Amino acid sequence: xxxxILDSGYKxxxxxxxxxxxxxxxxxxxxxxxxxxxxYAVMFYLEELYSGFYVxxxxxxFVMLSMVYMVALRVSVRYYKTVLMLMVFTLMLLFIHTLHVxxxxxxxxxxxxxxxxxxxxxxxxxxxxxxxxxxxxxxIVYNQQTLIPSNISSFSLLDSISILVLLSILxxxxxxxxxxxxxxxxxxxxxxxxxxxxxxxxMKHELEDNQExxxxxxxxxxxxxxGKILSMIAHHWRQPLSSIxxxxxxxxxxxxxxDTSDEKFLNNIESIDYHVTRLSKxxxxxxxxxxxxxxxxxxxxxxxxxxxxxxVQETMTSNGISFDLDINDRATIKVYxxxxxxxxxxxxxxxxxxxxxxxxxxxxxxxxxxxxxxDVIVKIExxxxxxxxxxxxxxxxxxxSTKKERNGTGLGLYVSKTIIENQTHGSLVATxxxxxxxxxxxxxxxxxxxx
Length: 451
Prior knowledge:
The chain is α+β, with helices and mostly antiparallel strands. It has helices spanning 2-6, 17-47, 55-75, 80-100, 113-123, 125-144, 154-256, 262-289, 301-318, 337-358, 389-393, 412-423; strands at 297-300, 322-326, 332-335, 364-371, 375-382, 427-432, 437-444. Among the domains are: 2-152, no CATH class; 293-451, 2-Layer Sandwich (Heat Shock Protein 90). 66% of the residues lie in helices and 10% in strands. The strands form two sheets. A five-stranded mixed β-sheet has the order 2-4-5-7-6. A two-stranded antiparallel ribbon has the order 1-3. Strand 6 and strand 7 (437-444) form a beta hairpin. Helix 2 packs antiparallel against helix 3 and helix 9 runs parallel beside helix 10. It is rod-shaped. The mean pLDDT is 77.
């Protein structure tokens, strides 16, 4: 309520803070003037003081004018300058009337200081200078007129004029310096805003460039995996194709030997159907790997790990790598599924290549998944021998590889970390163990529907 009165009901924009401050100040003056004027009007009436000079009537008029000015400012802040001018001239008239009050107080003319201060503070420099000149003229004219005897001596007159002029000069100089400081501050503020806008544009441009580069690196890593995937497909297809070929040869041999019993044909056909189904499933598994996920989907960490492990299991097992698996955790996550499968697949195939390069005997990997109240955690550990501290500190850098140049692009682990941190808002950390490396993937849980 009080704030609404002080602000005159006007909604100020961000660029009008100075005007808002002045309106509030002027309203405070009106409130104080109404309170003080009403009090002294009542006191003068009760005590019948200075009745010949209409002092009480003057105070009543001043209170009424203050109310009118306050209402006008309340109606519209556009009247601010007009209200300010009327208020200043009302004070001038009030103090001119005060000069006529015959009491033993020759310094009351110094009350002209108030209109000058108000003119400078609530108005501007030109208004302050104008009120100063007008005040000096009023003092001189009042001292020269003969209608009512003046109680101002020549010394007091010069002293008063000197004080008013000096005060005006000091306030004008202060206001000039203040305005210069404000102007400088605004210039610096504008320069800072321009610099921030330029920085925002540059950051936005850099962010877009980084996103494009990251997307290209992910694609590059995926294409780099294509040869490895084709090799894995060959491993997956070798046994089913061999079984199909065997069943087909058996059927041909049965025809040639005229030994075509229905039971043998049915068994061979069922064997062919079974292996064709396996081939079809393999194609579906690998086809998903090369498709980018367009939308996040709710899934379980168990399914993610199974999809990644199914792709590499047969190849790595055929390379003599054994597994200790505990990937049955069913905590729910919401991710870009294929990208996360790619991230995990990069870690697994990276370990497979290290095992082959180092010709590791008794190659072994442990893969575990579990969850807590906040996160789903996957730990992948191997016994491939690990690396030194300096290499470990660079393991997630792009194009860094400890493998032979022909075998490593240096993008696999970098892409894995980028996918996990940027797309799942999780983390990927690598640490050394006694026999190799341990990778810990942490992904925030998607609690809805979590088992």
